[in-house]
Design brief:
The chain is an alpha/beta fold and 406 residues long. 38% of the residues lie in helices and 17% in strands.
Length: 406
């Protein structure tokens, strides 16, 4: 726990935050935990970040959907890049930070996604900030799904645009609000923001309908594909692939690609605008060459076996049916993220601890990450999970409403 200075200390940098911190019980404070990876893709918790590790935990929390982070091809590619280019890029992309592997990755991604150009970023958070700032400004209006990622919301705030939220995955509500905005100010710049797979809900919107509405109303459309790429859409290309009217696609390498970093994919004029004007792109050290090389290896694996994501989706459907048959609320959506709704914060934490005692790791997601009263366990399927994992999970969860469960 953080050791706070005495109350009333004028030098206390957290003085204004003390009331909020004081409302959080000590047993519900968020803490960093250290995990050591095992050879089979599991994790072991390490007390205090060092020292002896606990018993291995089967990882049901990470976003390594296809198990690529431990794939020999990615490891060899990353090691080769380190031997060739060093551990870091050493500068921003427009100085000396761009290596041939960056160029090859960007070109290969652009071709795979049928986009004219791709720009690489060190993180998805940074890419999303850059995306929003490139598409709107203080005279614009942003219409955003109510559950978009925090990075996108901060981008809207930084842009100075007015924010209007529409109901989650509700294209009819979006259309009504877009028509209102267009009628009130026919020349106003409008931007719509959504995600193709919402990471805490496991749900996806009807992107084709949203793109059609945006075209009719002359609105730009930004789609965050971070959790969909590699799993959803044709060959794992995401749900925005092939849709007319999508202005900009944001994606990451830290999930299904098993690496790190992110990208924005756009047509050439918008990509050049980002290159010339985006501080988030120009003023950060370029993505480490080893991460770019690993992401490129992951892309090659996806191109060689486009059905990798489909097999995971079939397994996800079996899990949803199994959880529902056991009496738990059926998780929404069709992707590899299965939120198990619990409701109460304390009950979600208790259920997390219950699973850990059974050797399973699934982290409780609580407000403000999700709305109040909707705390949940976020179950994540990975291609490398052993057979029988669902049976083991259901046994560890027990009967809904008993013990640490709902």
């Amino acid at each position: 726990m953080v050791n706070l200075p005495p109350d009333g200390d004028p030098a206390d940098p957290l003085r204004s935050l003390r009331p909020s911190l004081g409302r959080v019980p000590p047993d519900r404070r968020r803490r960093l935990r250290s995990f050591a990876a095992t050879a089979d893709g599991g994790l072991t918790a390490v007390a205090g970040g060092a020292g002896a590790a606990s018993a291995p935990l089967l990882d049901l929390a990470s976003n390594d959907y296809l198990g690529f982070s431990h794939h020999p091809r990615l490891q060899q590619a990353a090691c080769g890049a380190i031997n060739r280019d060093g551990t870091g890029s050493g500068a921003s992309p427009l100085v000396t930070g761009t290596r041939p592997v960056h160029t090859l990755l960007a070109q290969s991604l652009a071709s795979w996604l049928a986009r004219e150009q791709v720009l690489l970023f060190p993180s998805g958070f940074q890419a999303n900030l850059a995306a929003v700032l490139a598409l709107t400004g203080r005279h614009g209006v942003v219409l955003a799904d109510r559950l978009i990622h925090h990075s996108l919301l901060l981008g809207v705030q930084a842009s100075g645009a007015r924010l209007v939220r529409f109901r989650h995955n509700d294209s009819a509500d979006l259309e009504r609000r877009l028509i209102e905005q267009r009628t009130a100010a026919p020349q106003r710049q409008l931007l719509v923001i959504t995600e193709s797979l919402f990471s805490m809900e496991g749900t996806s919107p009807d992107l084709a309908a949203i793109a059609h509405i945006c075209r009719l109303q002359g609105a730009r459309l930004l789609v965050d594909e971070a959790h969909a790429l590699g799993v959803l859409g044709p060959g794992g290309r995401g749900l925005a692939h092939g849709l007319a009217g999508v202005s900009l696609v944001s994606g990451t390498f830290g999930k299904a690609f098993g690496s790190g970093g992110a990208f924005l994919a756009a047509d050439a004029p918008l990509a050049d605008w980002l290159l010339q004007s985006s501080g988030a792109f120009r003023y950060s050290t370029a993505l480490a060459p080893s991460l770019a090389a690993a992401a490129l290896a992951a892309l090659e694996l996806l191109q060689q076996d486009p059905a990798l994501g489909q097999a995971l989706l079939s397994r996800a459907e079996r899990w949803r049916c199994g959880l529902a048959a056991a009496g738990w609320p059926r998780p929404g959506g069709a992707g590899p993220v299965l939120p198990l709704l619990v409701g109460d914060d304390g009950a979600a934490l208790a259920l997390q601890a219950q699973l850990e005692r059974a050797g399973l790791l699934s982290v409780a997601i609580r407000p403000p990450t999700v709305p109040a009263g909707t705390a949940r366990l976020r179950l994540v399927l990975r291609r490398s999970l052993p057979s029988g994992t669902l049976t083991r999970l259901l046994a560890a969860l027990g009967t809904p409403g008993a013990g640490g469960g709902r």
